[in-house]
Amino acid sequence: MPDYRLRGAVRGEDGEIGAPRVDEVLTAADAKEAVRLANSRSLTIEDDAVNALWLVDAHGTLLWSLRRADRDS
């Protein structure tokens, strides 16, 4: 099964994204499952400062992203 990377960082008010504070490998059967895993994992990120999350495949292609403010509103 392929690996995907879930990353998270602090996005400033100016929109700039800082260095990743979350960098996890998710193993999933396909991109759809990886996005599902990323969505569920986004609820349990312990670092409250992290407000931007994204998922990439092995080639670095962006598959999913989330601003926590969008989810929480």
Structure description:
The protein is of the alpha+beta class and about 70 residues long. The chain is built from 2 helices and 4 strands, in the order ββαββα. It has a 4-stranded antiparallel β-sheet. It is globular. The termini are far apart. The relative contact order is 0.26.
Short summary of the structure?
By secondary structure, the protein is α+β, with helices and mostly antiparallel strands. It contains 2 helices and 4 strands; from the N terminus they run ββαββα.
Unreliable parts: none
Give the percentage of residues in beta strands: 25-35%
Report the major sheet: 4 strands, antiparallel
- The total strand number stands at 4
Provide the structure class: alpha+beta
Number of helices: 2
Shape: globular
Spatial strand order of the main sheet: 2-1-3-4
Specify the helix fraction band: 10-25%
Give me the Rg, rounded: 12 Å
Order of helices and strands: EEHEEH
Mean pLDDT: 89
- Distance between the first and last residues' Cα: 34 Å
List keywords for this structure.
alpha+beta
Task: List the topology elements.
Layout: E1 3-9, E2 22-27, H1 31-41, E3 52-56, E4 62-67, H2 68-72
Antiparallel strand pairs: 1-2, 1-3, 3-4
